[in-house]
Design goal:
About 45% of the residues are buried. Strand 9 and strand 10 form a beta hairpin. By secondary structure, this protein is an alpha/beta fold. The protein has 7 helices and 14 strands.
Length: about 240
């Protein structure tokens, strides 16, 4: 499994960071967790095929996690017509707004031709035999989720945005072995994760959704390599192989 951290910023783009998006590559397919930036541009720049995108999963409906999605589905609706990804949004309202936007972009009636579903519940939300995605409710918004992604025998957790690890880090995952946990650092000091990480067996943590004033704290935590798990501060277009 290859993971590319397309965008690692917090609520707004920064000089060296774009808004949140992460790409998973497994079994010859591409999958995206959030699309706060124009991830379709990076798919093209890296020489990958847009038709290889089989799923897009949104943790919640905040602009820094979804604003790149209309561009992606627009291009799929008229140019990359061999692409047929499943797009899962946490709200029906978001799904309907996406369809309306695509129709509004053209003088002729055009619909969202790819599979788009809104309003998923906690539990397994996707399983195509290559990647399995399980959603866990969080308290960042009324419709925010963390995702557990499983492929090639690997387990990768994306926390999405949290209210605070002490109250909404998925307790169902305590005691579960994780090859990688991708954790946000915008809304609280990264050290606040430590009590939660101790309840899990995690090989590596990537800190992303990085807020500038918390970045020194994240860098300091990553330097303390006596701490388990191994901690890495993510940056845009960083790639990892699991």
């Amino acid at each position: 499994m290859e993971i590319t951290f397309v965008g690692t910023a917090h609520g707004i783009p920064e000089k060296d960071r774009r808004c949140s998006s992460t790409m998973l590559e497994t079994g010859g397919n591409l999958y995206l967790i959030d699309m706060g930036c124009m991830a379709v541009e990076d798919i093209r720049r890296t020489g990958k095929q847009v038709a290889s995108v089989k799923g897009v999963f949104l943790t919640h409906m905040h602009g820094d996690h979804v604003n790149g999605l209309p561009s992606f589905v627009d291009l799929c609706s008229w140019y990359f017509t061999s692409a047929d990804p499943v797009i899962l949004l946490p709200t029906e309202q978001g799904c309907e707004a996406l369809k309306t936007w695509i129709r509004a972009l053209d003088t002729q009636e055009r619909d969202l031709r790819i599979s788009s579903y809104g309003g998923f519940a906690p539990g397994v939300i996707f399983d195509d035999g290559v990647l399995k995605v399980t959603a866990f409710k969080t308290q960042h918004t009324v419709s925010s989720h963390a995702f557990l992604c499983e492929a090639e025998g690997k387990h990768v957790l994306f926390t999405g945005d949290l209210k605070h690890p002490s109250v909404d880090f998925p307790p169902e995952l305590f005691g579960t072995k994780m090859d990688l946990a991708v954790c946000e650092t915008a809304h609280f000091p990264p050290e606040d994760y430590l009590p939660v990480w101790k309840k899990m067996e995690i090989d590596t943590v990537v800190l992303q959704h990085v807020q500038p004033r918390k970045e020194p704290l994240a860098e300091d935590l990553a330097k303390r390599q006596t701490i388990s798990p191994r901690i890495v501060v993510g940056y845009d277009m960083m790639r990892m192989t699991l």
